[in-house]
From TrEMBL:
<keyword id="KW-0479">Metal-binding</keyword>
<dbReference type="Pfam" id="PF13183">
    <property type="entry name" value="Fer4_8"/>
</dbReference>
<protein>
    <submittedName>
        <fullName>4Fe-4S dicluster domain-containing protein</fullName>
    </submittedName>
</protein>
<feature type="domain" description="4Fe-4S ferredoxin-type">
    <location>
        <begin position="24"/>
        <end position="86"/>
    </location>
</feature>
<dbReference type="InterPro" id="IPR051460">
    <property type="entry name" value="HdrC_iron-sulfur_subunit"/>
</dbReference>
<keyword id="KW-0411">Iron-sulfur</keyword>
<keyword id="KW-0408">Iron</keyword>
<dbReference type="InterPro" id="IPR009051">
    <property type="entry name" value="Helical_ferredxn"/>
</dbReference>
<dbReference type="InterPro" id="IPR017900">
    <property type="entry name" value="4Fe4S_Fe_S_CS"/>
</dbReference>
<dbReference type="InterPro" id="IPR017896">
    <property type="entry name" value="4Fe4S_Fe-S-bd"/>
</dbReference>
Length: 164
């Protein structure tokens, strides 16, 4: 039997009262943020509009315990395109702060995520240089190379991995 969800109807006011959360209550659920999000493209369950809906419903516990609030890469595309100036990128930062404050994750976890972001850029730089130097310059060659490399990483889920 699944556990009943816990709702905190004051949660939205706590989020909206924090720097970065001020625009929350202006959201009219148009979905523009989700449509342009690069993380939503690769992770269908990451849905900014749904996260806002969950905040408004008061699903505090579920949200603060979710890995999804850590997936955003901070590109600010959602914020730039939002017709209501909601600033979803900053809303997620508020959720992350609350997760740390409420002990859902350790303060060290936030540093780990920051380091993942930094290393991802390093990885991208190394990959581009490698492809350039090896002359891998067609999509077909790249797909083959990518699938071979990803297959070596057992923990990577998704297209091209061997984890499914
Ligand atoms: S784009 Fe803005 S108004 Fe539309 S759902 Fe996203 S946050 Fe809400
Ligand atoms: S800032 Fe985060 S949520 Fe917004 S579009 Fe970029 S990755 Fe998606």
């Amino acid at each position: 039997m699944s556990e009943a969800k816990v709702f905190d109807y004051q949660f939205k006011y706590r989020v909206a009262s924090r720097p970065g959360g001020e625009g929350l209550l202006s959201c009219f659920a148009c979905g523009v943020c989700t449509a342009g999000c690069p993380v939503s493209e690769v992770e269908g369950d990451f849905n900014p509009r749904r996260i806002i809906h969950q905040i408004l419903l008061g699903e505090q516990e579920e949200l603060l315990q979710s890995e999804y609030i850590w997936l955003c890469v901070g590109c600010y595309r959602c914020t730039a395109h939002c017709p209501q100036d909601v600033e979803f990128t900053n809303l997620l930062k508020v959720l992350r702060e609350l997760a740390v404050e409420e002990g859902t994750v350790s303060a060290e976890w936030k540093k780990v995520v920051d380091e993942v972001d930094r290393r991802t850029q390093e990885l991208r730089r190394a990959l581009i240089k490698y492809l350039w130097n090896k002359g891998i310059n067609s999509l077909e060659e790249f797909e083959r190379f990518y699938r071979e490399e990803i297959a070596k990483l057992g923990w990577v889920e998704g297209e091209g991995s061997n984890a499914r």
